[in-house]
Structures are given as C-alpha cells and as structure tokens.
Amino acid sequence: MRKVIIDTDGGSDDAVAIIMCLRDPAVDVVAITTVSGNVDVNQATKNVLMSAEIALGKDNCPPVYKGAMQPLIRDRVHARNVHGNDGMSDLDLIHPTISEEKEVACDAIIDLVKKYPDEIELAVIGPATNIALAMMKDPETMKHVKCIWVMGTAGFGPGNTTPVSEFNVYADAEAYKVMMDFGVHVYVGGFDLCTNDAAWFEDDIKELLDSGKEAAIFSVRSNDLLAKFSYENSGIRRINLCDAISLAPMLWDDVVKVKSECISHVVTDNKECYGQVIFYDGGMLAGMGPGFENGYYGKTKPNCTVIYRLNAELYKKRLKDLLIQ
Length: 325
Hints:
Elements: E1 2-8, H1 12-23, E2 27-34, H2 41-56, E3 64-66, H3 80-83, H4 105-115, E4 120-124, H5 129-137, H6 139-142, E5 147-151, H7 167-170, H8 173-181, E6 186-189, H9 202-210, H10 214-221, H11 224-234, H12 242-251, E7 256-266, E8 277-280, E9 304-310, H13 312-323
Parallel strand pairs: 1-2, 1-4, 2-3, 4-5, 5-6, 6-9
Antiparallel strand pairs: 7-8, 7-9
C-alpha cells in the first residue's frame, strides 16, 4: 500500500483533507507532521489530533509530530482572519484526547524515509518549513522520497495573499524554494483549483449536515468562518477546500482533467513578488530574456506537474462519501 506523510498547518480546510486521506483505503498515512502557518504550531497540532480522532477514533490514529514553530528566516504570518484564532472557526470544537509524539517533525520525516526508502509520498498542505529542514539536514536520505504532493502556489491564476502569491508559499517562500528545487518531483495543486465548482455550496453543506455523521458535521462547522469570509468577499456562501482539492489527485488520478509538466521558479528576492511561483511549460516565448541562459533559471527539464483542472463533480462525490461513511 502507498505510504504517505501529511505535513500540515492545521487550518479548517486542512482538517477536511486529513479526514479524507485517513479514510481513503488507497493510502496508508504513516504520520502527520505539523508546522506554523494558518495558526501557531501548538494550535495546529491540537487541530490535527482532533481531526485524526474524528476520522478514525482515538485508538487508530497515525502518530502526530510537532514541527517548526517559525519559518526558516522570516517572521511568522498567520491566517486567523480566515480560519479563526484556533484555525477552526472558534466554535470550541477542539478537544483531542490523544497526544503528539515526542520526536520533532523534521527528524520523524527523515526516520520514516529511511525506514521506507523510495516509498514515502509527502502530502504538503501548509508552509514547507519542515520539508526544507529535513532536506537540508539529511539530503541523501530525502532524495529517497518517492514524490511530493502540495497545496501551494497560485497555480496559473492570481494569489490569495498578494496579487501573485498564495499563503502557504508566502508564509515561507525560502522553504518552498528548497523543496521545489531539491530534485524530487512535485505535483502541484494551486489556489486556482479551489475557486470554481470544486467548492462546497449551500446544497453541499446541507447534504453533509443532514447526514448526521460526526465527520461531515465537523468538516462543515470547522469551516464556518471560511464560508463567512467568502460571503463577505464575493456575496456567495461557499467553502473553498484548497487542501482537500489539491490532494484529491493523489488519491484519485481519474479526477484530473488538465495538467502540465513545468519548470518552476520560486521568487524570494523581490519584495513585490515575494512568494510568487512562476511555471514555465517549455513553450516558445517571443523573447527569451534573463533566466534562460542555461535552461530556465538553471533548470533544463520539468521538476513539477501542475494540475489545473479537475472533475469537480467526481471529486466532491468521493469526498462526501468518505465523510458520511
């Protein structure tokens, strides 16, 4: 069975992605690691413990390891305005009865890759700080990661934190650059996947609440502030589940409709564009300017696959089935 480590910053959409992966029989989630992002790492860890317990019950959860408290070099940023002070809509939902492990996330990732060389797939749905730390600490071992699935970047659309950058990258672009340039192939689900029919709308929300199932109700209620945030900004009450949408191709390759092999470049040295990830698919440009002297920023072959169109109806049906089982 495929072996997956989920690395997450414990927000409300992360919770749905965690439940989705833990309940899908196609993958074995061998560990979950936490990182500062949507909320601080202590709160993120509590949220992950609660989500895992909701998904599988307290006796069947994978080990959870607390990770980086702050980005590699910059100050922390959070997304409490979107997810709440506790990252889960501040509805007093977080009361885990299980605890995290003592080992730190970076070391746990390295140890698991050593145990399962060329088998571990990383599902990175928060800032990439833990992944970058593991790559810098033990690059030889981390070269044996099978592949990486990420929710990050703006894809081929606009950003959600600046006009060009998405939150997970913006929170620690230096770490994202380490991960993207490391040499392990990355499958990218960007923010552009999350803005159309793949969201939960009123009918979807009602169906989940009417099911009476704990995981379905928890998934909706924990995203209450996200739905309100969307309504205030667009006039439509919807829940954009960026993390679940971006990991859906890891579970179900038949939901992918359009993808592109690309070379990526993570911008860290420009204030206005910090956190932007530029994707180049190898097509001919009118003028091959700076950056193309030796490939594209030194890269001569694709290092990532960008997924930018899904079968939203099929994805939503499978996710709902897992939540109401």
